[in-house]
Specification:
By secondary structure, this protein is of the alpha/beta class. The chain folds into 4 domains: about 1-170, NAD(P)-binding Rossmann-like Domain (Rossmann fold, 3-Layer(aba) Sandwich); about 180-425, N-(1-d-carboxylethyl)-l-norvaline Dehydrogenase, domain 2 (Orthogonal Bundle), CATH 1.10.1040.50; about 435-580 and about 625-665, Alpha-Beta Complex (2-enoyl-CoA Hydratase, Chain A, domain 1); about 585-625 and about 670-764, no CATH class. Helix 9 (about 220-230) crosses helix 10 and helix 16 (about 375-380) packs across helix 17. The longest helix has 21 residues, at about 330-350. One of its GO terms (molecular function) is NAD+ binding. Keywords: Fatty acid metabolism, Lipid degradation, Lipid metabolism, NAD, Oxidoreductase. It catalyses: a (3S)-3-hydroxyacyl-CoA + NAD(+) = a 3-oxoacyl-CoA + NADH + H(+).
Length: about 775
């Protein structure tokens, strides 16, 4: 965990000293620290946003190198969960650390005030818990846990640093066992196991019910348990139960105890848990599931839960309501599990945190829930939940009793929220949240099924996509032109292109392209490509600044929009790529042109152009996707001037700020008219390389057909003039011609159909 935290700090550009204990049987006294970095470099998903970030880490050991922390601004421990070990470490640290350093523990269970016993008042004032969730790069939550003696200024400064610099979602937790996330999250997991056995369900069925169907990760309950480690859940549940006196709430089932205590099946770390991975006779991985009756593993047949079929495709609120109200053992299980979560969250309000939104955020950011327990109660109706709890014979926690007495049906109510005591308090989200902004109907300037124009305030307009996966259909593309027109007519300073969905954009509307190609609607398809090219290029060649704010999947047309923006404000977790060759096409919205320009512009006068053409060809031809914004910059999807935001929640606000920075004195750019190209010389070089790839089995014959079309564009057409010059429009025309040619081929249509059916590329 220490190495994973160190990796995330380097992702933010922060140098780190990583110290570990000395193993007496290892000649290298820094063996464990080095091993931690190696594990982080090999981790999947990757701990480092770029492997070279590891160079920011200096390794050492706690016996020889403790003096290396003397200049550190922040010192954090992630050692064994034993109080005496922490006491010993903090005694040594206090003798070395500078008097302004913030001191933190990553402990997931040992209260912070116990750790600083015996330390000076000054040390205690700078000590604050900093509990990361694993893996630190991907789980957004950071619980900041002050003691009664922690300086409020330290809490404020550290929380701000964690938010803006580290990109974490900060929840300030009370210094109680389990803090917020584990206290409520582990309770819910323990109760789900008990409810499963009571209702005669299997782990596989429970994971179907408690995963994406109710807005939670695919790993759901028991896959998450295996990933976390059954021993970790075992110890956390037992420890919280003992320390709090809530033994009954945290009592694990006999089956679970048997897995840990007798079988030693601890999940992924031992290869066996509620699930087991194995290989079939062909060497293909298959998943076995645990039979709870005999504790033997069985082939996992496809799980079908009828009630989920009826709810498929419906909005989250409808799915949750449907599962809460359905009859039968699945309904009994889901009502029980949700009521457990609601009851315990309400019971813990004020104990783990005084803010209900912090409890909701802890579950969303630390466990990947789309909605926290109080938000879910609002969606169901608090009165409905209270009635269900009373029907079960439960005593209402004081918070819910007050909600009942005052006949309130929501915790969140516009600009107000109920606090832990049941009183209404003003509430303003710490981030720009579109769903909140759009509650004011006047902020939505225009809307279609696939896109909206939203007034962000301060003279900035937002173009927001909201189709499935934010795929770019005709209505979304046409809205780009409407956005430019609206900026000019209503006097906005500029435009942000962004949204707060799961992904920025997964690219083009493939079903429409396939349909038009199969029906031979070539004029319509040609017009659609031309419309998209006009839309993407307009993002740069407009009389006002445009900033694109990509995050997560930014593929195909999504990348092409970012490539054409005046500036990009990207989330650190941005996965960009021109992936069209995977479906037998080429980037047709200016992406091929833009990558050629980026690489040729990096070529010094007098240097050959071929390496630049080859770089663009390799990047597009292999459908390379960046692993982060940092990687996207290395690949030239992002420019050095483009900005990266560590915390995605700040993304739209930072993009808005960039528009306002660019707006004064903005000058509309002109299209390039003198782009150097190589013509047949480049095509010949690429043909030779392709021959070797096909003969060596690295590319199929149809890959060759697709890639030759790509080569023709990057060469500027089949001219024999090695010093030819072309315009941007000529390159766009070559793109459109190649796109249409490929769309008419059976090989491409087969690839698109296969991708739509399986989600995987076809190698034909």
């Amino acid at each position: 965990m220490g190495a994973a935290i160190a990796a995330q700090l380097t992702n933010a550009g922060i140098p780190v000293v990583l110290l570990d204990i000395v193993l007496p049987d290892k000649p290298d006294r820094n063996f464990l620290a080095k091993a931690g970095i190696e594990r982080a470099l090999k981790a999947s998903p990757a701990a480092f946003m770029a492997p070279e970030n590891a160079k920011l880490i200096t390794v050492g050991n706690l016996e020889d190198d403790l003096a290396k922390i003397k200049d550190a601004d922040w010192i954090i421990e992630a050692i064994i969960e034993k109080l005496d070990a922490k006491h010993d470490l903090w005694e040594k640290v206090e003798k070395v650390a500078k008097k302004t350093a913030i001191i933190s523990s990553n402990s997931s269970g040992i209260p912070m005030h116990l750790q600083v016993e015996g330390r000076s008042e000054d040390f205690k004032s700078r000590f604050v818990g900093a509990h990361f969730f694993n893996p630190p790069r991907y789980l957004h939550l950071l619980e900041v846990i002050p003691t009664d003696q922690t300086s409020p200024e330290v809490v404020r400064a550290f929380s701000e640093f964690a938010d803006h610099t580290l990109g974490k979602g900060v929840v300030v937790a009370n210094d109680v066992p389990g803090f917020v996330g584990n206290r409520i999250g582990v309770y819910g997991m323990v109760r789900a196991m008990k409810r499963m056995e009571e209702n005669g369900l299997t782990p596989a069925v429970v994971d179907q019910l408690t995963g994406p169907a109710i807005g939670r990760p695919k790993s759901a309950t028991f896959r998450t348990a295996d990933l976390s480690g059954l021993d970790i859940i075992y110890h956390v549940a037992n420890d919280i139960g003992k320390v709090t006196g809530d033994d009954e709430d945290f009592t694990l089932t006999n089956t679970f105890k048997q897995l840990v205590e007798e079988k030693k099946w601890l999940g992924d770390k031992t290869g066996s848990g509620f699930y087991k991975k194995t290989k079939d006779e062909r060497g293909k991985t298959k998943i076995l599931t645990l039979n709870l009756d005999n504790l033997e593993y069985e082939d996992q047949a496809p799980v079908k839960v009828a009630v989920l079929d009826a709810l498929k495709g419906k909005p989250l609120a409808e799915r949750v309501k449907g599962l809460y109200e359905v009859e039968g053992k699945e309904g009994d299980f889901m009502r029980g599990v949700m009521n457990d979560s609601f009851w315990y969250a309400a019971k813990m309000a004020g104990t783990v945190s005084g803010q209900l939104q912090d409890i909701d955020n802890a579950l969303k950011w630390g466990f990947g829930w789309e909605q926290g327990p109080f938000e879910t109660m609002d969606a169901l109706g608090v009165k409905t939940v209270i009635g269900s709890l009373e029907k079960e014979g439960r005593t209402l926690p004081p918070l819910l009793q007050k909600m009942k007495d005052e006949s309130r049906d929501k915790f969140y109510n516009g600009g107000e929220i109920v606090d832990a005591k049941g009183e209404m308090q003003p509430y303003a989200a710490p981030y720009l949240i579109l769903s909140d902004l759009k509650k004011d109907a006047s902020k939505v300037v225009k809307k279609t099924s696939g896109a909206s124009l939203v007034d962000l305030g301060d003279g900035v307009l937002l173009l927001e996509f909201h189709s499935k996966m934010n795929a770019l259909g005709e209505d979304a593309i046409r809205m780009i032109g409407t956005a430019h027109k609206t900026v000019q007519e209503l006097g906005y300073a500029g435009l942000v292109v962004g949204n707060q969905g799961d992904n920025f954009s997964a690219g083009a509307n493939l079903p429409l392209i396939l349909s038009q190609a199969q029906d031979e609607e070539w004029d319509e398809l040609d017009a659609a490509i031309k419309l998209f090219q006009q839309a993407t290029t307009s993002l740069r060649f407009s009389p006002h600044p445009v900033v694109v704010a990509p995050f997560n999947l930014t593929l195909g047309g999504g990348t092409e929009m970012a490539l054409h923006a005046d500036a990009v404000t990207a989330s650190a977790e941005t996965y960009m790529g021109l992936v069209e060759v995977g479906v037998g096409l080429i980037p047709g919205g200016g992406g091929t042109k833009e990558m050629l320009l980026r690489f040729t512009d990096q070529t010094l006068p007098g240097q050959p152009l071929l390496p630049a053409v080859q770089r663009a060809f390799e990047l597009i031809g292999t459908a390379k996707v960046s692993t982060s914004a940092q990687d996207a910059r290395k690949l030239s999807f992002l420019r050095k001037s483009d900005e990266t935001v560590m915390n995605r929640d700040n993304l739209l606000a930072e993009a808005k700020r960039k528009v306002l920075e660019l707006a004064p004195g903005y000058v509309q750019p002109a299209m390039r008219m003198d782009i150097p190209v190589m013509g047949e010389a480049a095509i010949g070089a690429i043909k030779s390389a392709l021959y070797g790839l096909v003969e060596g089995g690295y590319a199929s014959k149809y890959d060759r057909e697709v890639l030759l079309q790509l080569a023709n564009i990057l060469a500027g057409g089949a001219t024999n003039n090695r010093q030819a010059r072309v315009t941007e429009q000529q390159l766009l025309d070559l793109e459109r011609e190649a796109f249409l040619t490929l769309a008419g081929k059976k090989g491409t249509q087969d690839r698109i159909a296969h991708m739509l059916k399986t989600g995987k590329p076809l190698r034909n």
